Amino acid sequence: MGISVAMVLLLPKAKVNTKAVVADIAAKWPDFPDAVPVKAEPGQLMFEMGGLTVIGQLVPAPIPWGDLEGPCRTSWMWPNAEEQLRAHAGHLIVTVMGDDDPVVRAKFLTIGIAGILGSCPEALGVYWGDATLVIPSALFQDMAKEILPGGLPLFLWIDFRAGKNEDGTTGGFTSGLAALGHMEFETDNATDDVGTLRERLFNLANYVLEKGPVIKDGNTVGADANEKIRVVYSKSMYGHEGRVMRLDYQPARKRRR
């Protein structure tokens, strides 16, 4: 059995009701498997959906600001995140338990959280810890409803970071792929501009999530047959645990005869 977790940030006096959450999910996804309420302990909500169990545990205290400060500072989806999230007084730890496929769990977790947000006006947004992302309530709901269940709402699950280096090259990385069962992507010598690198990271993440771990150590990737960016399995340059897939933009050196 696998477990996936994210958190919903709540204003003071927020109330979350399982029946209201289930009703909101049914309204957003009428063709999706029904969410069925399950009796829970005080301070919890619980329902089953598609063979998985969704549990929300109320914590009457804010998430430590040290955990939120970095995501707030770097969030392009929530420009005034710090100002708004300073007001949160509690949070709901939302857990999905069941299917061993982490992508399936992430879909059900996203749908469950969208139902919580839609039924609770005092819910400010989401902290998706696996990607260190904060996402405001309305945007999270809109993206989830538009893309799920058939697609993959990668911007809710993965942070695609990119920026310029002092030497004019571009560096970047993903955060969140590891929780979905794949190695993260990184580079420190891209010749792309920032926007193009972020798009490339997105496309590569989408590719491995759809096709599986088909990019091997030493393979090349690129937008066409002429573009050959070498993939190297290596330690992270940005503090990720485990090996990553580093994109090396430098042309391979010719061997001496």
Could you give the topology of this structure?
Blueprint: E1 2-10, H1 18-28, E2 35-37, E3 44-49, E4 52-59, H2 65-74, H3 81-85, E5 90-98, H4 102-119, E6 123-128, E7 133-136, H5 137-147, H6 154-157, E8 159-164, E9 170-175, E10 185-190, H7 194-211, E11 220-221, E12 229-235, E13 243-248
Parallel strand pairs: 10-13
Antiparallel strand pairs: 1-5, 1-6, 2-3, 3-4, 4-5, 6-7, 8-9, 9-10, 11-12, 12-13
Helix pairs in contact: 1-4, 4-5
Total domain count: 2
Radius of gyration: 20 Å
Strand order of the largest sheet: 2-3-4-5-1-6-7
Which whole number gives the mean pLDDT? 95
How many H/I helical runs? 7
Please supply descriptive tags for the structure shown above:
257 residues, alpha+beta, 2 domains, 7-stranded antiparallel beta sheet, 6-stranded mixed beta sheet, 7 helices, 13 strands, disordered C terminus
Structure notes:
This protein has 2 domains: 155 residues, no CATH class; 90 residues, no CATH class. It contains 7 helices and 13 strands. The chain is an alpha+beta fold. The longest helix is centred in the middle third of the chain and has 18 residues. Helix 1 packs across helix 4 and helix 4 packs across helix 5. The protein is 30% helix and 30% strand. The strands form 2 sheets. A 7-stranded antiparallel β-sheet has the order 2-3-4-5-1-6-7, sandwiched between helices. Strands 8-9-10-13-12-11 form a 6-stranded mixed β-sheet.
Task: Summarize it.
This protein has 7 helices and 13 strands.
